[in-house]
Amino acid sequence: MASILLVEDETAIREMVAMALERAGYRVRHAESAEDADAAIRLSQPDLILLDWMLPGESGIDFARRLKRERVTREIPVILLTARGEEADRIRGLDAGADDYVPKPFSPRELVARVKAVLRRVQPTAGEAPVEMRGLMLDPVSHRVSGDGRKVEMGPTEFRLLHFFMTHPDRVFNRAQLLDNVWGANVYVEERTVDVHVRRLRKALAPTGHDDLLQTVRGAGYRFSID
Amino acid sequence: MASILLVEDETAIREMVAMALERAGYRVRHAESAEDADAAIRLSQPDLILLDWMLPGESGIDFARRLKRERVTREIPVILLTARGEEADRIRGLDAGADDYVPKPFSPRELVARVKAVLRRVQPTAGEAPVEMRGLMLDPVSHRVSGDGRKVEMGPTEFRLLHFFMTHPDRVFNRAQLLDNVWGANVYVEERTVDVHVRRLRKALAPTGHDDLLQTVRGAGYRFSID
DNA sequence: CGGTACTGTGACAATCCCGTAACGCCCCGG
DNA sequence: CCGGGGCGTTACGGGATTGTCACAGTACCG
A219 to chain B: which residues are within 8 Å by CB? Predict the structure, then answer.
C-alpha cells in the first residue's frame, strides 16, 4: 500500500490524521518541520505528502514551492492542510504546486477521501500496476516476475527489493535507505544483509540476462539502471 | 565514529551497554544522573543520548522532556531504556520527545542495532538536484557523471570532489578547505593528497575535454571555472 | 638567468569495499 | 517430529580505492 509523509508539528492533529490514514491501510511517516521532511523524503520516497501550511521554520507553502522547483517531488503529489480558508490562499497553495488543499477543520473521513482521490489521479493504478523495463516484467498483483517471457523465480524479500528498484529506477540507494524502504523503518538488520539479497536477486535474474540492470555504485550503494 | 552519552545509574547495566557500544565502534561517555548528563552534554555534544527511565533525582522521562523543551537536543536523538513495558509508557516516552524506546531486558545486539537505526534515520543523507556546466553533467541522485552525453567514470572521492566544485563554481579553495568539505571535518590527511585527487579527477574528465575546467591557482588552491 | 617554492605525475602499500559461500536459526507444512 | 525454504549473519578473498612519497616539471622571484 502507498506510503504517506505527514508534515505537521501539532501532535494532536498529527495523531488523528495518522490513525485515520493507517486505518485506511496507508503506511504513515511523519516529520515536524521542513527540515525533517527533507530528510524523510530522501530516505523513504513517499507516494504522497500531506503538508501543514503553518510549520516552525520554513512554512509549508514555501516548502511545497521549493520541492516543486527542485523537482525532488517530480512525481510525488502534495496536499496542503491549513486553517486558512480564503479563496486567495487556496489559489496561492495550488500555485505553489500543491495537488489539493484541505481546509481545517476537516474530518478524518474527508481527508482520507482526498488522499485516495489524489493518489488515483496521479498514479492511475497506485503501486499495483505491473512494471516493465527492458523485457523484465514485474506484476505486483500476481506476484510474478518474468524476463523476456520466461518465468523468473525468487523469494519474497528479493521480490520486494526488485519492486522497489523498478519503481525507483536510476537512483542510487545506500544500504540504510534500502533497509528502510524494503525491510521497513523500524527493523534492525545489518547493512551487509542488503548485499546478500542483492546477490540473490542478481542470481535470480541471471538466467534471462537482466542481472546487469542492478548495478553496484562503489562507496554509495546500489542502482537499478535504465540504460 | 559517533559519540554516545549513556545516562544510567546502575553500574552493571552501564558496563554491559558501554562495552557493547564500544565494540561496535562508538565512543561512549556516561553520566549517572540528569545533572551529570546536563554537564556532559554541554561538554561533549554527543550524537545520541541513551537515557534510563529511572534515575536518582530527576527521572529520565522528565529529563527527556526538558531537553526537548529547552531545545538543547533539537537535533540530538534520545533513546529511552526502561523496565516498564506498557504500551502507555511507550507512548509517554515517545511523546516526551524520545526517538526510540528499548524495553528491558534487552540484548546488547538489539540495543546496538537500534542505535544504528536511529543514527541513520537522523543523520541526513544528502541528495540534490543535478548540476550542469558546459556540457558536463553531474547527477547526485543517480550518481552519474557525463560529458557531452558520454559516460564519465571516476572513484567516490573524485565524485564528491567534483560535486563540491560544481556546486561552488568560480571560487578558489585552498587544500584545507577542500579537505574539510570533501573529506570531512576532523579527518587528518596530508594536504598534498588533494593534489593527487585533483589529478585523478582531471584524468577522468580528460576524455571529454572538460579537464580544463578544474584550474590550479598557484599559491592559493584550485578553482572550478565557469568561463 | 638561477633559484626556489609550488604543482604534476607515477608507483606502491595499506586499507576498504563488495561478492560470494557457508552456517545456523526460525517458521511451517507434512 | 522432521525436512526444507527463506532469512540474517559472518568469514574470507580479491580487486578497487586511497593516502603517501619521491621525483619531475613549472611558474615566479630577485
Answer: 155-156
Distance CA A64, CA A72 (A): 10
Domain encompassing residue A33: 3-122
Q: Indicate the burial class of B50 (C-beta count within 10 angstroms; 0-12, 13-18, 19 or more).
A: buried
| Residue positions counted in chain B | 227
Q: Name the domain boundary from A100, A122, A144.
A: A122
Q: How many angstroms separate the CA atoms of A146 and A26, rounded?
A: 28
Q: What DSSP state is assigned to residue B191? A: T
**What are the backbone dihedrals phi and psi of residue B218, each rounded to the nearest 5 degrees, phi first?**
-60, 130
From B142, which residue of chain A is nearest by alpha-carbon distance? A171
B143/A176 touch (CB, cutoff 8 Å), yes or no: no
Along chain A (227 residues), what's the average pLDDT of each consecutive run of 10 residues?
84 81 78 82 80 82 75 68 66 69 74 78 58 86 83 88 88 86 75 92 89 91 88
ipTM of the complex: 0.62
Residue owning grid cell 505528502: A49
In A96-187, which ranges are continuous DSSP H helix?
Answer: 108-122, 156-167, 175-178
A176 is written with which cell numbers? Answer: 540504510
Tally of structural domains, chain A: 2
